[in-house]
From TrEMBL:
The keyword Signal applies. Keywords: Signal. It comes from Xanthomonas campestris pv. translucens. Residues 312-338 are annotated as: Disordered. Gene3D superfamilies: 1.10.530.10. Residues 317-338 have a biased composition (Low complexity). InterPro entries: Lysozyme-like_dom_sf, Transglycosylase_SLT_dom_1. This is Lytic transglycosylase. Residues 1-23 form the signal peptide. Residues 113-214 form the Transglycosylase SLT domain. It holds the Pfam family SLT. It comes from the Bacteria.
């Protein structure tokens, strides 16, 4: 690429000088200026401005690269789950929804924690990747935490702020918990997900009952657990297979071949309304509002809060630094308890 720049620049420099006999000196000067200018061009990717968008194929590739069980044995998948999640590929392909960039955000967080990306399918099972999802039984948000579980994992549910509806707060909590379970059960994602659903002590008790440990356990043969817990593993594997099989369809792959924003946890300063902050950042207010249902009345908050939004034009590091400075400048007053 650098040689192409050099060739083009030399051609322009020569063409810009009159071809008369006395033009040798101007030509030489022009060439020297051109070469000097080329010396300041970036020579490696690290020197280029950070990306603010990425292709949907890159998100899919990152997901596949992070799978613990990359091979799909379609013959072992219950047809019920394949039918239940048959629309997941269409949700990722839909440009009118935020599922693809949200999925990319969760995949990023899991890979940063060195966790298998099967876990990125949990929000499909729990909420259909809808940050504002609420269940009549009480669970809410992307990961469908109940209030007590959320508080136990340091997700604030207080006053007018419900952190379960924050994709940032809830995803951070889910990743922390999954990291603990993944280590507790010897890196077996299936045991970890069963513990995520049923509770770690219940799974440990079941393993001890039959003399199994994390190294030799057969999740499908653990006794005394709810059918829902066994099905949870099956659902995630079925979802992974549905996405893998979708890759054989050219139309679906073409629908993912588009640029979507890279989402990042940012900071909403205290007392600033979400729509006002979005305008200040030159972001689409409607999209930011959809991604952050927990911040509907953020202008009334007395402390800075996390907001999930596209990376700023300076890249993720510059955006994080600017947001941190904004948060530090804000007075931190505690929210009144519920």
């Amino acid at each position: 690429m650098r040689s192409l720049f050099l060739t083009a620049a030399l051609t322009l420099a020569i063409a810009s000088v009159s071809p008369c006999a006395g033009a040798a000196a101007p030509i030489g000067a022009a060439l020297e200026q051109t070469v000097a200018g080329l010396n300041v061009l970036p020579t490696d990717a690290a020197a280029l401005p950070p990306a603010t968008t990425r292709n949907g194929h890159a998100i899919l590739a990152s997901f596949r690269d992070g799978l613990a069980d990359a091979q799909c044995d379609g013959g072992t998948i219950d047809a019920r789950w394949k039918q239940q999640f048959a629309r997941a590929p269409a949700r990722l392909a839909n440009e009118d929804e935020d599922v693809l960039p949200l999925f990319g955000y969760v995949v990023d967080e899991l890979r940063a924690a060195d966790l298998p990306t099967e876990f990125a399918l949990i929000p499909f099972v729990e909420s259909g990747y809808r940050p504002a999802a609420r269940n009549t039984g009480g669970p809410a948000g992307l990961w469908q935490f109940i209030a007590d579980t959320a508080r136990n994992h340091d997700v604030p549910v207080e006053g007018s702020y419900d952190g379960r509806l924050s994709a940032v707060d809830s995803t951070r909590a889910a990743v922390r918990y999954l990291k603990t379970l993944h280590g507790m059960f010897g890196g077996d994602w299936r045991l970890a997900i069963m513990a995520y659903n049923a509770g770690e002590y219940r799974v440990l008790q079941s393993m001890r009952r039959v003399g199994m440990n994390a190294q030799n356990a057969q999740p499908e043969k653990l006794p005394g657990l709810s059918p829902i817990t066994y099905a949870y593993v099956e659902k995630l594997h079925a979802l992974a297979c549905v996405l893998e099989q979708a890759q054989t369809h050219d139309e679906w792959m073409a629908s993912l071949d588009r640029e979507v924003p890279i989402l990042q946890a940012r900071t909403l300063p205290a007392g600033v309304a979400l729509d006002e902050w979005a305008r200040q950042q030159a972001l689409q207010g409607n999209q930011v509002a959809r991604l952050n249902p927990a911040l509907g009345s953020a202008g009334n908050k007395k402390r800075a809060l996390p907001v999930l939004a596209p990376v700023g034009s300076g890249g993720s590091a510059a955006t994080a630094a600017a947001d941190a400075m904004a948060a530090a400048a804000q007075p931190q007053q505690p929210e009144a308890p519920a």
